[in-house]
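In response to a reviewer's request, we include the raw inputs and outputs for one of the modeled complexes. The two entities were modeled together in a single run.
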Amino acid sequence: MNEKIKNIIASVLQIDDSTLEDESSPDTIEGWDSINQMNIVMALEEEFDIEFTEEQILNMLNVKLIYITVEEALNNA
Amino acid sequence: MAAKLCCSMKNLQFKDIIKNNNLLAKEVSGEPYKVSILNNITTNQITPILEYALRTQNINVDCQIGNYDNIIQDSITHNKSNLVIVFWEACNIIEGLHYKINSFSAEDYKSLYEKVTNELQFLFQNLKHTDLVLINSFSSSAFTNNLASTNQFDRFCAELNQFLQTSLPNNFRIINIENIFKEISVTQSVDWRYFSMSKALYTVDFYKHYTAKVLPYVLSAQGKAKKALIFDCDNTLWKGILGEDGKENIIMDSQSKDGRFFQEVQYIAKELYQRGVIIGICSKNNPEDVEEILNSHPDMVLSNDFLTIKKVNWQDKASNLKEIAQDLNIGLDSLVFIDDSDFEINLIKSEIPEITCFQVPKKLVNYPFLIKEAANLFYQLNTTAEDSKKNEMYKTQALRESSKKQFTDMTSYLESLDIELKIYQDHKDLIPRMAQLTQKTNQFNLTTKRYTESHISDFVANDTHLVMAFEASDKFGNNGITGLSIIKINNDDQSAEIDSFLMSCRVLGRNIEYKFLNSILQNLAEKGINKVSSQYLKSAKNAQVKDFYEQFGFSKVLEEEDKKLYQATLSDLKLKPIPYIRVNYE
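The model returned the following structure tokens for the whole complex.
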């Protein structure tokens, strides 16, 4: 599942999957701005049919935290 | 590349739209079509969706988002864009207006209304010369739950809409977003989390539907509106297979379970015919069997009176559709084809990707909705009296084609037609039609410059431009206003430049262009002008006129890959007299 999430993040950021690591974040990836952050969240919600809370959205600060948050949202769904 | 439609986008996920949009960006080229989104909320999610929809129609779009909550200032800097879209959300005119306004005093309410309507007038003014502006209706629907009574926010939005409707400039159109709320519900359209976090009110779903509303305007402004809607017969115009089930057993009446959907589709097609859309059939059947249904089946709404063209035979449908485009003298990309069969739809998609295809849905209840969506592709920014007459003209075109066969040489045929041109000069009543001609004419168009009604009315009003149009008629009928030329006049040095010269394909092949050019040049000579420049700007469709000016002795002063510039002294030109066409001036 993490691969699928990584693939979505990469699609939105228009970069290759392989350039993303667990610690990749808006600070390390050029083009990962607040607009793309929102696009990533929207794309994930659509893909997994989940709805994050505002707090979860604010916590998605890097790739690894996104994995954790998606899993958490799926478990609560 | 296949013209994929927006409706297919509704099933695409956001991540795939972003991905496909980036792929298409590398494929689609041509003159960039600049779109600016001005807003007072966050609207960035629209960019990949709108770009994708336009790129699938081969439009090389460049979409820019204005600064957040900066509509008036941005309307000055973005007024050169081809299209400006305005998201002016009432709820964010003042932060939290949707709840604050309900306790406003009458005075505060009035002064806010005046402030906003003043700003709207600035917007109208700043975007006066922009080709096309789409502004959303003001809506309180997302914020109001009380159906029993209206509050001040509802009233505020209603009054702003009233203002929009009464003072809207003619290059503006309103996108009624209530229609999107009806289609997918308010809950699907807005997301309160994003609104509270970053003022992004609308969802991806909303933008997909919004884009489908924008697309017809863009297609029309780009001269890419569709022209002909062609139906298969069996299980497309009626339920059942004529050749197998027999004429008594095909169904298209409102009393039977499935028949009503076919009846509704036929009525929609009939209405489109009345608006000037070409309606045709392309079916594998015995022609006499289908004729019998068209002439005498009691439930057949779309009878011969409402059909412009028919290809009923056992040829493959790709060849038939190509013939239809040829007979009507329209491009293949002007056709929309409806069929129930996977085989036929896939054949056309692979053989002639320019044609837009829709398959009759398996769930017939959705069929009328599909046709209504297809109908949007025929939208014309400017509808004119010409449109309702158009189908008659296409029919006389067919008569003309058959009479042509009696003559062995072209000149005696043309002489027999008794062609007459009525020429109109700077004629105010023709402004909508003349703007429409610049937007729709692709083949016989020397420069393909698209103008809006406001451009044309400026040209008509000023003596820096001469706007000449003609109405062509012959013994078979009147073709209406079918040719236009816009000439820039330089009064300082008595010279002129032919900015636009175009003719509808309905009147091609009759040497009318020569007679029209003669009249223009004669007119210029009478004004004391002797130096004329002209140009050919290459487009995807106007190769047939690339050597037009060379024929008369215009000398080429510049030739590049995509354009040629000419100059001439009037007295040196070798014009073609064409004695058999009569000219009158209105």
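As requested, we also summarize the result in words. Helices of chain A lie at 2-13, 34-48, 54-59, 63-76. The CA atoms of residues 2 and 25 of chain A lie 16 Å apart.
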